[in-house]
């Protein structure tokens, strides 16, 4: 089945879905409405939309097909007249499966029963069949003078012997780097061990690689000769103006081809996704600013090099949750959380790409704050643009598969505009200092200025 192109509009009383399905017979269309769920089947097309509120298939509803344009328009009555249907332009959210609540309590509860008398031992057996292993061990210990059973530990289990490791969005992926040694993946910092490294080993390799790539002379040269960098710092991103974000036809088509998944992250995983999002937006903001929104053949390498979750499969958090104070901001993140998440991005922007400037890193942080402040639609647009850059690279497209595609879906369907705005406000007030980077940047800059002043004085004396 093919998912057709479509778009939604609404009035106070109805919502209309326009579906592009050329060269079909309108008499073969099948339309079903079930509260918030609309399914449309007309061979070879199939579309399932989950609206935010319930709709009705009543006498005011209709379905019309225009053969000249190829559009089938399905108009459904809103169950509550005048109710606003939000996010009708977020196609990935509309296409996401309907969430079904699983009852926490059993559907059938036994009030009482009449059974034949059993021995105490048989009753104990029946009870232990319905309780957890830990409770069983306690009951068994009670029967044996509170001596808990002992077993000889096995040397190792088959699971421990496996070298398979998981990574990517919610740690859902594995096997994507099995043959990485045979590809020209220049951003991979784990080498042929990408599929076998433990998370702590990935982080150690990343930190070691950053130290190796740090070049004092390159940084000092860019610090002194910064005329072009100043031009890049003065560039203003037109997308971050006051214009409303309206998706283009190309963006809608890309969203239609995103994976159809429903994500159920834990609270901890959800926090980590927001932190990882910062690193993705930072990397794209750097490339967008340094190319002035005109990607180059090096853009894919630049973006992937600046994202620790790509180059070393090492996403945030980079600090322990135990360090979180009792008073937590409304976003759920402390300044320490945000600074720790962005620290590797700062370091990598000073060690890897062509332009290495601390002021540039600060500008990228400000760009990230501005992107987040504009909400999910603008964040989605930036991620789609990043996806477009990586999709056109013969190697780095893999990072779309394990990270960016899922982020594009999750942002639309599950992320909170309120949380994004709160993080943006915190980033605007957050200062990452040069002393936090760990490379004695302030001393380097002072020494560079001293050398420059001495050279100028010598030149004036010789003249």
| Sheet of most strands | 5 strands, antiparallel
Cα-atom Rg, whole angstroms? 29 Å
Shape: elongated
| Residue-averaged pLDDT | 85
Could you give the distance between the termini? 80 Å
Strand content: 5-15%
Q: Tally the helices: what do you get? A: 17
Q: Please bin the fraction of helical residues.
A: 40-55%
Class of secondary structure makeup: alpha+beta
Give a count of the beta strands, DSSP E runs of length 2 or more: 8
The ordered string of helix (H) and strand (E) elements is EEEEEEEEHHHHHHHHHHHHHHHHH
Low-confidence stretches: 106-113, 145-161, 321-327
List keywords for this structure.
463 residues; alpha+beta; five-stranded antiparallel sheet; three-stranded antiparallel sheet; 10% strand
Descriptive overview:
- It is a single chain.
- With 463 residues, the protein is of the alpha+beta class.
- 44% of the residues lie in helices and 10% in strands.
- The protein contains 17 helices and 8 strands.
- It has helices spanning 91-95, 120-129, 133-143, 158-161, 199-213, 216-224, 227-234, 249-256, 267-290, 299-306, 308-311, 335-351, 358-373, 376-391, 398-413, 417-429, 441-462; strands at residues 5-10, 14-20, 30-34, 37-42, 45-50, 55-56, 62-66, 71-78.
- Strands 1, 2, 6, 7 and 8 form a 5-stranded antiparallel sheet that branches.
- Strand 3 and strand 4 form a beta hairpin.
- Helix 6 (216-224) crosses helix 17, helix 12 packs across helix 13 and helix 14 (376-391) runs antiparallel to helix 15 (398-413).
- The longest helix has 24 residues, at 267-290.
- The radius of gyration is 29 Å and the shape is elongated.
- The relative contact order is 0.10.
């Amino acid at each position: 089945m093919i998912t057709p192109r479509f778009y939604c509009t609404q009035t106070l009383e109805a919502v209309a879905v326009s579906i592009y399905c050329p060269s079909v017979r309108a008499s073969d269309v099948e339309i079903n409405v079930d509260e918030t769920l609309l399914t449309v089947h007309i061979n070879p097309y199939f579309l399932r939309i989950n609206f935010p509120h319930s709709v009705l298939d009543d006498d005011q509803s209709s379905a019309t097909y225009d053969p000249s344009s190829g559009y089938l328009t399905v108009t459904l009555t809103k169950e509550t007249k005048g109710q606003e249907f939000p996010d009708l332009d977020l196609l990935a959210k509309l296409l996401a499966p309907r969430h079904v609540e699983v009852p926490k309590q059993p559907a059938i509860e036994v009030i009482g029963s009449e059974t034949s008398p059993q021995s105490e031992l048989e009753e104990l057996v029946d009870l232990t069949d319905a309780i957890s292993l830990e409770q069983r061990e306690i009951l068994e210990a009670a029967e044996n003078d509170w001596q808990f059973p002992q077993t000889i530990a096995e040397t190792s289990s088959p699971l421990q012997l496996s070298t398979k490791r998981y990574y990517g969005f919610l740690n859902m992926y594995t096997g994507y780097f099995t043959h990485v040694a045979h590809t020209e993946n220049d951003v991979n910092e784990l080498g042929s061990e990408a599929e076998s490294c433990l998370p702590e080993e990935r982080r150690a390799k990343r930190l070691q690689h950053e130290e190796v790539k740090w070049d004092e002379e390159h940084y000092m040269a860019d610090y002194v000769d910064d005329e072009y960098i100043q031009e890049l710092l003065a560039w203003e991103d037109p997308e971050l103006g006051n214009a409303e974000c309206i998706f283009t036809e190309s963006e809608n088509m890309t969203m239609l081809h995103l994976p159809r998944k429903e994500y159920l992250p834990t609270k901890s995983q959800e926090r980590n996704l927001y932190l990882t999002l910062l690193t993705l937006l930072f990397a794209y903001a750097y490339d967008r600013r340094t190319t002035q929104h005109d990607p180059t053949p090096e853009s894919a390498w630049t973006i992937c090099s600046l994202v620790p979750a790509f180059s070393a499969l090492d996403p945030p958090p980079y600090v322990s949750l135990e360090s979180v104070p009792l008073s937590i901001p409304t976003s759920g993140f402390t300044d320490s959380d945000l600074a720790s998440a962005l620290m590797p991005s700062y370091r990598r922007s000073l060690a890897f790409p062509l332009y290495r400037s601390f002021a540039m890193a600060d500008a990228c942080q400000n760009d990230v704050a501005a992107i987040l402040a504009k909400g999910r639609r603008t964040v989605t647009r930036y991620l789609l643009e990043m996806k477009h850059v990586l999709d056109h690279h013969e190697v780095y497209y893999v990072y779309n598969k394990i990270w960016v595609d899922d982020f594009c879906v999750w942002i639309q369907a599950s992320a909170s505009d309120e949380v994004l705005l709160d993080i943006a406000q915190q980033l605007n007030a957050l200062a990452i200092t040069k002393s936090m980077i760990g490379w004695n940047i302030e001393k380097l800059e002072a020494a560079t200025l001293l050398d420059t002043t001495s050279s100028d004085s010598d030149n004036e004396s010789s003249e």
